[in-house]
Write a structure and sequence with these properties.
Structural class: mainly alpha
Shape: flat
Helix content: over 70%
Low-confidence stretches: 1-6, 11-28, 67-71
Strand content: under 5%
Order of helices and strands: HHHHHHHHHH
Number of domains: 2
Number of strands: 0
Number of helices: 10
Largest sheet: none
Length: 217
């Protein structure tokens, strides 16, 4: 699995750096993905080791779970999973609500920062971003339409990362390293949101309550 993922990034790097004008790179973000491929190449041995170790860990964990036959053990596992989902939703939602509030209190400085990064249609996109961060962040915390909220927040995070943390446009140095860290941090946030979008909000959510109420009606 790890080799396949690293190989995929190799393909991206080659595709975006290659001479073909009809490649996916030429249609999306050639410079961004080219430099992303270079960053991946630098840490390729580490990534390969991590993915291989993850495969071993997951395999061992699944074998251990298969050996657990006691109902109490299963109930404990379910409780832990739902508690983790609740805490994760709370932290993810807070991650969007707090920046949404800061954008309101520091509206002018946010506009200036977006202008520096050449963000188009700021007068429309900034209010839309604030509304999405506040409303969808709150929806994620309480678990109301959680899958949909997580999916849209993942898309928002991806767009913000491309425009506001474009490390590929910076020269080597502290600023580029800082933006690189912010970019990949946001990719981690996006991964967590996509997992919520796929798995749902869990037992401790309004979605679960409404589903139980509809089933009992």
């Amino acid at each position: 699995m790890g080799v396949c993922i690293v190989g995929f990034f190799d393909f991206l790097r080659g595709g975006f750096a290659g001479p073909r004008t009809t490649s996916l790179a030429s249609l999306i973000a050639p410079r961004a993905f080219h430099h992303l491929g270079e960053e991946i190449q630098r840490v390729r041995p580490v990534l390969t080791c991590i993915f291989r170790s993850s495969n071993i860990f997951v395999s061992c964990t699944l074998r251990l779970l298969d050996d657990v036959k006691r109902p109490q053990g299963n109930q404990m596992q379910i409780a832990i999973e739902n508690t983790c989902l609740l805490i994760g939703r709370f932290l993810l939602g807070l991650y969007f609500i707090l920046p949404g509030i800061s954008k309101i209190t520091g509206y002018e400085s946010t506009v200036t920062y977006m202008e520096v990064h050449n963000v188009p249609m700021i007068s429309a996109l900034l209010p839309l971003t604030i509304v999405m961060q506040l409303v969808l962040g709150a929806a994620l915390i309480v678990g109301f339409r959680g899958k949909l909220a997580a999916f849209f927040l993942a898309g928002l995070t991806l767009v913000i990362s491309v425009y506001m943390h474009n490390f590929w446009d910076f020269a080597e140095g502290m600023e580029r390293n800082h933006e690189t860290q912010n970019f990949f941090k946001n990719m981690g946030i996006t991964a967590g949101l996509l997992m919520v979008a796929a798995l749902g909000t869990g037992r401790f959510s309004i979605d679960k309550y409404l589903a139980k109420r509809a089933a009992g009606a």
